[in-house]
Design goal:
The complex is a heterotetramer of chains A (144), B (129), C (664) and D (332). Chain A has 144 residues and is α/β, with parallel strands linked by helices. Helix content of chain A is 38%, strand content 16%. The longest helix of chain A is centred in the middle third of the chain and has 18 residues. With 129 residues, chain B is mainly alpha-helical. Chain B is globular and about 40 Å long. In chain C, helix 13 links the parallel strand 22 and strand 23. Chain C has a five-stranded parallel beta sheet, covered by helices on one side. Chain C has a five-stranded parallel beta sheet with strand order 20-27-21-22-23. In chain C, strands 2-1-3-4 form a four-stranded parallel beta sheet, sandwiched between helices. With 664 residues, chain C is an alpha/beta fold. Chain D is an alpha/beta fold and 332 residues long. Helix content of chain D is 36%, strand content 12%. Classes of the chains: A alpha/beta (144), B mainly alpha (129), C alpha/beta (664), D alpha/beta (332). At the A-C interface, helix 1, strand 2, helix 2 and helix 3 of A face helix 4, helix 5, helix 17 and helix 18 of C.
C-alpha cells in the first residue's frame, strides 16, 4: 500500500435488518473492502435524513452511500420505498447544484448478499477516488 | 463461440423469446392446428432452441408448416411465444439461403377462389422476411 | 456529561489479529466522557462481563461502549450485563470492530485506525443516549377469528380450549367454508362432512365461542392486545335466537329459482334458505334480493308458517363493537374465474366444470344426490378429461392466471379420478398434467394407486382446446411423452382451477395495516421462523389466506396460530420495544406528514392547548405516537419538516454525532 | 393594471364587516413607499379607507398569515386571495394549519404583479412615488422632474410571467370572472440549468447562493415554512445556524429548506419575491416539482385539499435513485 495514496472518507448508512447484516456477512466471509468505509447503523434506510448526508459532506466526507433491504423486502414493509423517493429527489437536486453525482448512491443489499456488499463498497470507493477530494460540498472551517 | 452457440444466441435474440421460461406443459403443441404436418412440434422447437439443437430445425420442413396462427402464443401459460421462435428459425434459414421465397409480384398469381386471403397474408408475412 | 466506560474485545485473535486492541483502548481514553478504558480477551465471557459490571461500580459509569463483534451478535448480551450492573440496558453501544473491521481489513495499521474511529462514533452516540424503558400495555383476553372455514374453526376451538373467549366472524350464513362443500378428502378418503360437521357442532356448543355469521368486520382500530373492532351483522330477517331451523319456511317459500351458491349454481334454492342440513348456526336467512316481501311487500308466507315467530322483515344491519387482544385472519380462498380461459369452453358448455363443481356433483348432499351426471343432460359421462394447472403457474405477463402453484390440485384431481374409476369402472378417465406434485405424507402413494390400481390415464401434456360439438366435447391435447397430439371425445371436462385469496382479504389487510404480497396473500412476519404471524403485531394468519394449503396443513397452521394467540393472551401486560418514535409537541405542526408514511398507523392527532409567551393560549393539532404500535422504522422522522418527530435509540442528534465522529 | 379596484374590495369588506360575516380583514396596507405594500389587519371601515391599498405591488400571499391570525382573531377573518394564493391556502388546509371555519375567503382575479427590482432597472433608484395610470406606472424619482412611464407588462414579476394558474382552487366568494389553469413555461429555466455541465451549474449556484445573507426572509415569507420551530432555529437539531458562517451553511440551509417544502411547495414564488439579494430560490423548488412530476406523475400541491404529496407516497415500481442521473444525461 502506498503511503501517500489519497484516502477518501466514506460514510455508509446501513439498515439494521438487511444491509448491516449483509456487511456482517461480508465480514464472516472475510471479503475485503476499503477501510475508508465507515458504517452507521440505522433501523431502516428510511431513517436516513438528508440532513445526515449533507452533514457528512459538510464535515468532509467524500462519498455517502445508503444501503437498505431490497424493495419489497423492507422489515417495516414500506420504509425503503420512501427512501427510494426521497433519495431520488435529493440526489437529483445535488446533481442540479453541480455536486458530482458519483458521491452519492443508494444500493439494496440483503442480509444474504455479503459479496454484493463488499463489491458495492469496492466499486463506490473506486468511483469516489477517481473524483478526488470533495471540494464542492465541504466545510473548510471544519476540516482538520 | 462455436457455430452452434452462435446460432442459438442469434435465434434467441431475433425472436426475443426466452426458451428457458418453458415449463414443458405442451399446451402449444396441444393447441397447434398444423401439428400433424410438423416433424418438430412447437414444444420441440422451444426445447431444441433451449438446448442449442438448431441445425435439425433449420433443415426441417416444419418451418414452413407453421401457419403463424399464433394460437400457441395466445395459450402459452408462461408467455414463451413458440411461434416467434419458429419464425426466427425460419428467418435464419431463409437468410442462410440468401433469398426470399416470395415477392409481392408472386401474390396475384396465387389468388384463387378457394385460397383464403388470410393464408396469403400469412404466407407473405412468412416468406418475405 | 456521561461517564463512559470503553471495553475493547480481542475476540481471541479474531479482532486482536488485525487490530491493535491496546492502542484502541488507549486512544479512546481521551475521548469526551470516557473515564475508563480497557481491553480483554473475550468480553462476552463471564469474566469479561464481570469486568464490565465491576467497572460500572468502581467508576460510576453511566454509559458503556463495547468494541467487539456485531451488535447483531452480542448487543443483547451486553445490555443484560449493563442491567445486571444496575445501568439502563439502553446505555450500551457497540462498535462493530470484528465483522466490519478486523475481518475485512488485513493490515494492522488500517484496522487499528478504523477501529478507533468506530469506537469514537460509538462514544459520541452513547454520550447522547438516554435511559429507555419499554412501554407496557394491557391485553384484552379475547380473540377474534375472521373467517369460519376449517382454519377459523380449528383456531377458535384451540384458543377456546385454552380458556380464552373467541369470536368468529363469518360472512356466509353458516360456518364451514370450502371444506363443507367437499365430498371426500385426500389421501384417506374420509368424507369431509363426517370430520368437519362434528367440529362445527363443537364450535356451536362451546360456551367460550360466539359465532357472528352473515357478518363482516367493518372497522379495526387499536393495536396488539387492544384492538377495537366493529362487526357488521347483516340483517338476515330471521331472529337467530328464535329460529329453530325446522325449515317450514323454506318449504313454503314460493321463490324457487334462486341459484344455489352452496352448490355453485348447479341447482336452485328458495328466497329463504338454510345453506345445508348441517349448517351452524342452523338458522334460516332471507335473501333480500330475491324475497318478494322485502322487495315489494307482497307474500309474507314464511312469517305465517313460522310457529316460532322468528321472521322479522324489519330487521336492520346491526353494528357490534368489541375489544380483542389478538386477531386471526382465516379468510381462505376461492377458485379463480374461468372467464379468461376461452380455450376450455367453460362458458360455452355446461359440461365443462371446475373441480369444486365436480366436488358438489359427487357429493351425496349435492344437486345430483351424489350420482355423477352431466350437468347438461343428466346422463352418465363415459369419458372424463381432467385438466390440471388451469391458471396456476402462469407467467406474470400472461395476464391470466396466477404465477404460483395452487398446491392442492394434483391431489384432489387424483382423488376425483380415483373415485370416478372406483364408482363407475366403465368410465375412461384422463388426467392431463404438467408435473404431478405430491409432497406429503401418503400423497405419492395415493397418486400411484390412482394410476396403478384404478387405471386412471395420466398423460404428460396439456389440453390446448375444448370444442363442444353436439353432446360431446372435442378435446385436443398433447401427449409429450408419446410426442403425439391427442383428440378425445369427452363427455365431461373438469378444470383444476387455480385458487386465489378471498376478495375480502385486501380491504381487511388495509384495516389491519397488515402486509400482503402481489397475489393478495397475507405476508408472514418471517417466511421460515414466524410463519403464522403477520408483521403487524397481534395479527395472526391461519389457512389459505397466507398461501395455498390443503386441509392437514391448514389445520396445523390453525393450531399454530392458536398457540401464538394463547401465548399472547396469557400475558397480562405487553412490553414493547423502547426504540420507538416520539413527537415533541412544542415543535409539532400537526401537518400529518408522519401519519401518511407510518406503515403501522401508530400516529394519531389531538388538539392541545398551549400557553404562549404572551400569556395567551393557543390550540394546536399535535401528533402522538402509540409506543405499543410503533415498530421504530423512523420513516416519520424524515417526513417531519420541523424535526418534532424523533426516534429513541436512533435520535437525530445521535446519528449526527456519529457522522461528526467519523468525519472528524 | 388590475381589473378590480381598491374601492370594490373595500366595499366588499365593509359589507361583510357590517353583516357580521367577518370580524376583521386581512389586507394590504400602505407601506413607507408606494411599492412596499405590507399585510395588515383592518378592523373597521375607517381603517380600510385610510390605509387599504390594492395595486400592482400587492403580491403578498396572505395564506400563511392565516396560521397565526386565525388563532388570535375572534370570529372570522376576511382574506383576499389571488389565484396562486389559493393553492397555498389549500396546502395549509391539507396540513391542518388553520381552521377553515374561521376564514371567509374572497377570490380576486390577478393580472400579474410588478417586480420593483425590474422597475428600478428602468428608472433607477430613488423612487419617490408611483402613480397607477391605466396600463402604465408613472414613476417619479428623486432625480428626474418628469415621471417615467413604465408599462406594467414590462416589469411583471418572474412568477407572474410564468403564471401557472388564473383559477381559484378555494374560495367562499369570487369577485370577477374565474380563470383557467395555464400551460406555463415555468420549467424552462430549470431545463436550461439541467442542460449545463455540472461545473457550469456549480458555478451558477455558487454565485447565486454566496450572496445569501441568511436573513431568513425566504423562510419567513414561505407559506410552506410554517413550522412551529424551524430546524435551523432548534439547538437540538444539530444543524442550528442562524448566520452564514461559511460557504457551506447557506447550501445546507437552502437544500434542506427546499427538501422540507418538496411536495408541499405550490410554487407561489414568495421566496424569490422577498429575497433582498435577488437569489432565484424558486429554481430550487421548481427543480423538485419538475423532478417529482417526471418521476411520479403530475402533482400540484394545493390543487385539492387532502391530496397525498409524492414524498409521502410510493409505488412498488418507482425508479431507483441511480436512474435519475441517466435521465439527466439523456436530457443533456
Amino acid at each position: 500500500m502506498q503511503v501517500n495514496e489519497y484516502k477518501p472518507l466514506i460514510v455508509a448508512f446501513c439498515c439494521n435488518w438487511c444491509s448491516y447484516a449483509g456487511a456482517d456477512l461480508a465480514g464472516n466471509n472475510r471479503l475485503n473492502y476499503p477501510a475508508e468505509v465507515k458504517i452507521i447503523r440505522v433501523p431502516c434506510s428510511c431513517r436516513v435524513n438528508p440532513m445526515f448526508i449533507l452533514r457528512a459532506f459538510q464535515r468532509g466526507a467524500d462519498g455517502v452511500i445508503i444501503c437498505g433491504c431490497h424493495p419489497g423486502d423492507c422489515h417495516y414493509t414500506s420504509g425503503n420505498y420512501y427512501t427510494r423517493r426521497r433519495m431520488a429527489a435529493l440526489f437529483s437536486m445535488l446533481d442540479y447544484l453541480g455536486i458530482e453525482k458519483e458521491r452519492t448512491r443508494v444500493e439494496w443489499v440483503s442480509a444474504a448478499e455479503g459479496a454484493k456488499f463488499a463489491a458495492t463498497m469496492n466499486d463506490f470507493v473506486e468511483k469516489v477516488v477517481a473524483l478526488g477530494e470533495n471540494k464542492r460540498l465541504e466545510d473548510l472551517r471544519c476540516k482538520k | 463461440m462455436n457455430n452452434k452457440e452462435y446460432l442459438q444466441e442469434e435465434i434467441i435474440r431475433r425472436s426475443g423469446v426466452n426458451p428457458s421460461k418453458c415449463m414443458r406443459c405442451g399446451k402449444c403443441s396441444a393447441t397447434c392446428p398444423a401439428y400433424d404436418e410438423m416433424e418438430y412440434h412447437p414444444h420441440q422447437f422451444v426445447n431444441m432452441v433451449e438446448s442449442g439443437d438448431i441445425e435439425p430445425l433449420l433443415n426441417s420442413e416444419s418451418l414452413y408448416k407453421c401457419l403463424s396462427c399464433f394460437a400457441c402464443i395466445d395459450r402459452c401459460p408462461r408467455n414463451v411465444e413458440p411461434a416467434k421462435l419458429v419464425e426466427a428459425v425460419r428467418l435464419t434459414a431463409i437468410r442462410q439461403q440468401g433469398a426470399n421465397r416470395m415477392t409481392a409480384n408472386d401474390v396475384p398469381q396465387m389468388i384463387e377462389e378457394d385460397v383464403p386471403p388470410q393464408l396469403l397474408v400469412s404466407a407473405f408475412r412468412k416468406y418475405t422476411k | 456529561m456521561q461517564r463512559v466506560g470503553v471495553f475493547v474485545c480481542w475476540c481471541g485473535s479474531n479482532i486482536a489479529g488485525t487490530v491493535d486492541v491496546e492502542a484502541v483502548s488507549e486512544a479512546l481514553k481521551s475521548e469526551p466522557g470516557v473515564v475508563f478504558s480497557t481491553n480483554y480477551q473475550y468480553m462476552c465471557s463471564q469474566a469479561g462481563q464481570d469486568m464490565i459490571k465491576e467497572a460500572v461500580k468502581e467508576h460510576n459509569l453511566t454509559g458503556i461502549v463495547v468494541c467487539s463483534c456485531s451488535p447483531r451478535m452480542h448487543e443483547a448480551t451486553f445490555r443484560k450485563t449493563a442491567a445486571a450492573a444496575g445501568l439502563n440496558p439502553y446505555m450500551v453501544e457497540i462498535a462493530n470492530i470484528r465483522e466490519q473491521c478486523s475481518w475485512v481489513h488485513k493490515d494492522m495499521l488500517t484496522g487499528t485506525e478504523k477501529a478507533i474511529i468506530l469506537g469514537k462514533a460509538a462514544i459520541a452516540k452513547v454520550n447522547l443516549n438516554t435511559p429507555l424503558t419499554p412501554g407496557e400495555s394491557p391485553v384484552t383476553k379475547r380473540a377474534l377469528v375472521i373467517g369460519g372455514g376449517i382454519a377459523g374453526i380449528q383456531t377458535a376451538l384451540d384458543i377456546a380450549d385454552a380458556g380464552f373467549p373467541v369470536d368468529i366472524v363469518e360472512k356466509k350464513p353458516t360456518i364451514g367454508g370450502k371444506m363443507a362443500q367437499l365430498d371426500k378428502t385426500f389421501p384417506t378418503l374420509d368424507c369431509a362432512a363426517c370430520i368437519l360437521t362434528p367440529k362445527m357442532v363443537d364450535v356451536a356448543q362451546n360456551e367460550k365461542i360466539r359465532i357472528f355469521s352473515y357478518s363482516e368486520v367493518s372497522e379495526i382500530k387499536g393495536f396488539v392486545g387492544n384492538f377495537d373492532v366493529t362487526i357488521k351483522k347483516n340483517a338476515r330477517f330471521v331472529k337467530e335466537d328464535v329460529c329453530t331451523g325446522c325449515g317450514a319456511c323454506v318449504d313454503k317459500c314460493p321463490m324457487k329459482k334462486i341459484p344455489n351458491e352452496f352448490n355453485l349454481g348447479m341447482d336452485n334454492r328458495k328466497a329463504i334458505y338454510i345453506p345445508f342440513a348441517q349448517a351452524v348456526p342452523k338458522v334460516a336467512t332471507i335473501d333480500p334480493n330475491a324475497c318478494n316481501m322485502l322487495k315489494n311487500g307482497k307474500c309474507g308466507l314464511c312469517a305465517k308458517v313460522c310457529t316460532a315467530g322468528a321472521i322479522d322483515y324489519t330487521q336492520k344491519d346491526e353494528y357490534i363493537e368489541e375489544k380483542y387482544g389478538a386477531i386471526v385472519v382465516a379468510t381462505g380462498f376461492n377458485p379463480i374465474s374461468m372467464d379468461k380461459f376461452d380455450e376450455f369452453a367453460y362458458n360455452q358448455s355446461k359440461d365443462v366444470i371446475t373441480s369444486l363443481e365436480f366436488e358438489r356433483l359427487t357429493n351425496a348432499a349435492g344437486p345430483t344426490a351424489g350420482k355423477l351426471l352431466r350437468p347438461s343432460d343428466g346422463k352418465h359421462p363415459h369419458t372424463i378429461v381432467f385438466v390440471q394447472c388451469v391458471g396456476s403457474r402462469c407467467d406474470a405477463c400472461a395476464e391470466k392466471g396466477k404465477e404460483y402453484c395452487s398446491k392442492i390440485c394434483c391431489m384432489y384431481t387424483a382423488k376425483h379420478a380415483m373415485l370416478t374409476r372406483d364408482k363407475y369402472p366403465d368410465t375412461e378417465v384422463y388426467v392431463f398434467y404438467i408435473d404431478v406434485r405430491t409432497p406429503g405424507k401418503n400423497f405419492d402413494e395415493f397418486y400411484r394407486r390412482a394410476v396403478e390400481e384404478y387405471g386412471v390415464k395420466y398423460i404428460k401434456g396439456m389440453v390446448g382446446k375444448v370444442t363442444p360439438e353436439g353432446d360431446v366435447l372435442k378435446v385436443q391435447a398433447s401427449d409429450l411423452i408419446a410426442n403425439k397430439q391427442l383428440h378425445i371425445d369427452a363427455d365431461l371436462v373438469v378444470l383444476a382451477a387455480a385458487i386465489e385469496p378471498d376478495k375480502s382479504a385486501r380491504p381487511l389487510a388495509t384495516m389491519l395495516t397488515a402486509s400482503m404480497d402481489t397475489n393478495d396473500f397475507f405476508t408472514e412476519a418471517h417466511p421460515k421462523l414466524r410463519p403464522v404471524e403477520s408483521p403487524t403485531a397481534g395479527v395472526f394468519l391461519s389457512g389459505a389466506c397466507q398461501g395455498p394449503k390443503d386441509i392437514p396443513e391448514t389445520v396445523s397452521q390453525a393450531g399454530a396460530a392458536a398457540s401464538k394467540v394463547i401465548g399472547l393472551l396469557a400475558k397480562d401486560k405487553l412490553t414493547g420495544n423502547p426504540c420507538v418514535a416520539h413527537s415533541n409537541e412544542l415543535m409539532c405542526n400537526g401537518c400529518s406528514s408522519c401519519e401518511r408514511v407510518c406503515p403501522y398507523g401508530a400516529i394519531t392527532y389531538s388538539d392541545k392547548e398551549f400557553r404562549m409567551p404572551d400569556r395567551t393560549t393557543k390550540i394546536r393539532r399535535v401528533a402522538s405516537v402509540n409506543p405499543a404500535v410503533c415498530q421504530g422504522c423512523g420513516a416519520c422522522t424524515v417526513a417531519c419538516p420541523s424535526g418534532a418527530m424523533d426516534l429513541n435509540g436512533f435520535a437525530n442528534s445521535q446519528i449526527m454525532a456519529e457522522v461528526d465522529a467519523i468525519c472528524k | 393594471m388590475q381589473k378590480i379596484t381598491r374601492e370594490q374590495l373595500i366595499e366588499k369588506a365593509v359589507a361583510l364587516l357590517a353583516d357580521g360575516t367577518v370580524s376583521c380583514v386581512l389586507g394590504w396596507s400602505k407601506g413607507e413607499f408606494d411599492y412596499d405594500v405590507t399585510p395588515a389587519i383592518f378592523n373597521n371601515e375607517e381603517e380600510l379607507k385610510a390605509n387599504f391599498v390594492f395595486n400592482d405591488f400587492c403580491g403578498v400571499n396572505f395564506s400563511k398569515y392565516l396560521v397565526a391570525k386565525t388563532q388570535k382573531c375572534e370570529g372570522k377573518i376576511l382574506v383576499f386571495l389571488k389565484p396562486c394564493d389559493t393553492y397555498s391556502f389549500n396546502q395549509l388546509l391539507t396540513e391542518h394549519r388553520f381552521d377553515r371555519e374561521k376564514v371567509y375567503a374572497v377570490g380576486i382575479p390577478c393580472e400579474g404583479m410588478a417586480d420593483v427590482a425590474k422597475v428600478k432597472t428602468i428608472c433607477g433608484d430613488g423612487i419617490a412615488s408611483i402613480n397607477f395610470d391605466g396600463e402604465n406606472l408613472a414613476v417619479t424619482t428623486l432625480y428626474e422632474d418628469a415621471p417615467v412611464m413604465i408599462s406594467t407588462n414590462d416589469v411583471l414579476a418572474e412568477r407572474c410571467v410564468n403564471c401557472k394558474s388564473k383559477k381559484h382552487v378555494a374560495y367562499d366568494e369570487l369577485i370577477g370572472d374565474e380563470g383557467e389553469v395555464i400551460e406555463s413555461n415555468r420549467f424552462d429555466e430549470v431545463e436550461k440549468l439541467e442542460a449545463m455541465t455540472p461545473d457550469e451549474r456549480f458555478a451558477f449556484w455558487q454565485n447565486e447562493l454566496s450572496r445569501c445573507i441568511r436573513c431568513n426572509a425566504c423562510r419567513d415569507a414561505c407559506p410552506a415554512c410554517t413550522c412551529e420551530k424551524c430546524v435551523f432555529d432548534n439547538p437540538n437539531s444539530g444543524v442550528e445556524n442562524k448566520s452564514p458562517a461559511n460557504s457551506f451553511e447557506e447550501k445546507m440551509f437552502h437544500i434542506i429548506r427546499a427538501f422540507h417544502v418538496a411536495g408541499r411547495c405550490t410554487d407561489c414564488g414568495e421566496c424569490s419575491r422577498v429575497c433582498p439579494q435577488n437569489i432565484p430560490l424558486h429554481l430550487l423548488n421548481r427543480k423538485f416539482i419538475k423532478d417529482m412530476n417526471e418521476f411520479y406523475g403530475e402533482y400540484q400541491a394545493g390543487a385539492e385539499v387532502g391530496s397525498r404529496a409524492p414524498l409521502v407516497d410510493y409505488t412498488t415500481e418507482d425508479l431507483e435513485p441511480g436512474e435519475v442521473f441517466n435521465r439527466g444525461d439523456m436530457n443533456a
